[in-house]
Amino acid sequence: MTEQALRRRLKFTFIGMLLLLPVVGFGSRQAIHHTRIHPEEWLPASHPERAEYLNFTAEFEGHDVVLISWDGCTWDDPKLADLQSAFDKPDDPERAKYFEEIIDRAVSGSSLMDRLTAEPLNLEPDEAAERLKGSFIGPDGKTSCQLVVLTPEGNEDRTPSINAIIETAVEVTGLSREELVLTGPPYSGSVIDEESILSVRVFGGLSILAAFLLCRVCVGSWKLAGVIGGAALFSQFVALSIVHYSGIYMDAVLMALPTMVFVLTTSAGIHLSNYYFAAVAEGDPEPGVTALRRGWRPALLATLTTAIGLFSLAISEVQPVRAFGIIGGTGIIIGSLLVLALLPGFLTRAKINVRETKVGGWRDRFLGGMADWVIAAGPGIALMCLIAMVWSGMGLGSLKTAGDIPALFRPDSEIMRDYRWFEKNLGPTIPLDVVIQFEPDDEMSYAQQLQILGAVQESLNGIEGASGFVSAATFAPDLSGSGFSLLSRMRRLNQRLDEDTSEYIDEHLLVEQDGVKRWRISLRASTFNNRGYRAILEEIRDRTEAVLGEWDVVERPDRAEYAGMMAMIQKVEATILVDLFWSFLTAVILVSIVLMLAVQNVFRGAIAMLPNMFPIVLVFGTMGWFDIAIDIGAMMTASIALGIAIDDTIHLLFKFKSGLRDGGEVNTVLRRSIVSCGIPMVMTTVVCGIGFLPLVLSDFVPTNRFGILMCVLLVTALFGDLVFLPSLLGRWSRRKPKQDEPTDAESETNSAAEPAAS
Fold this sequence. Notes:
4-stranded antiparallel sheet, 5-stranded antiparallel sheet, alpha+beta
């Protein structure tokens, strides 16, 4: 490869980027502006919980409900009745047409109380309120709310839908937006959507700026930093455009994707630049060519291992995590190829001035002193790190997951304030449905089916962390007791339902098809329960099956089904932990194979994996010991951090292997490798860490935690590569130190003469 060939490659690459810029620019812009989160779509359709949820929504309705209330909102408040009328029959024709598109139905505590106290039930207000407690009536028997069910179209473009609902509520009630209290999955999703856009635009922009400025400090040239930043920015655009053109929506999980691609591409540029600086310092007449010749192999291997860490996320069953891994890995590969194509040619053409490195400068003295300490205390360091890994590894078994609302937002955020208000004044907010099915050959009357339904509903009352039960039994006559009075009530109910069941069907409480009757019991779980959704769901299953057993109708395996957001969240939580283990294990196996092939030594490659597993085991094991839950953002960091940590390992191993091949003594070569590679390793760690740091400002907890964990893991990985790895290499390398090993002074002079390059 000649300098002229490098310049031609630079020219063709630059022209190609210009031609593709409109395509990737448009795609990235569309990706950012079309952000949404739908947790119910995170699991594949083949999952039992997802399949049951899809079947449930097709038969009944989705859980795309928005709940609205305010201080002083009671079931007999005229404002609540007016709000119900405004959603049912808006005065404005344009609004009426829009509501017809986005609103399936609207129900309030006021309208339900009217229904229960009117014919045919004629319940007393106190008795009617008792039936609705925990769902539409609060514990005080008065506080109430408005529920709006969105259509699929309304939920698809939910932010405008919710804004229209809020605007109507403000007009009808005369209250300000701040005085209204809103909850519900679409509202939570809308808040996350807005936070996602903010994270990509603001926090992502801060990350780009921070990484670029640090890159300038590291490479010492605005022009060189500009080329590296341009390659990183173009790679970011490519990753975002892949999101758009593949039909995937940007969501909360993918928020960190553009930042990650930019930061890691910048890191690759810094590493390659240091090969150029080394060649210039050596007086090489063609430093660009030499930099490419020396750097392409470790650069591509580092990229490959990072991509493997990301691609390992593709085994996840959580669809956004899988997309993050595939698109992120692709973006990193494209970014590294751009750096290799652009940087050598640009350096050859621009003739960037390189500041001379003073032999024995403070950086060399510091790294040299650290290297001497690592070499002298190598066995002890290795032993202490291994003990720390064992101790932390014991905590991995205690890891727990969190995927509920409190795990997504800061405690002091507005949305958490609203959820706490609802929990205190009305009841739980996370929906779940139990569906009881009766076949034609069951030969049960409507009244008998409602008796069973009521018995199940009664049994579920009192479950800690769940309340707000509503079913057809809620709006049916009391079917408890015995004797002639009960038989008379059942006969009248049967006669009425034989003639018309539309009232229950219209309320989405009953589905009838080919003689099969499927009755729905709706309930809600507490957002702030201390038991966890798994325990609540298991108790609901146990109690339901116990009641069905008492009525001798439990023999059918599909008699009762459980669908809803709570079941989905519980499954996502369980899937996160399983995926964390398998994706990390996959990454470890694949990266280990690559590392062994790279150093052409199975034993040394296996030993070199320990420092790269060190940060993940240490950080996640400590989280297990201290009972810190992992969320979907934390889950992705393990495989990503492993891939990033391998970068520095490969550069150090190549330097170490080269020194041994030239006949150097183990300790001397090890010292030179630490001094030579230490500066760019610290540089790239600082650039990556500071680049991820702005994500910590996000109010969305998974993004916030992703930024924190990435910074902690990167710093821990740097310790593993600069301290733990050399201690292992010095102890278990095949060549042993000889008696005539150079003195510390000689080693320092020799190593300082090496340029600060990896």
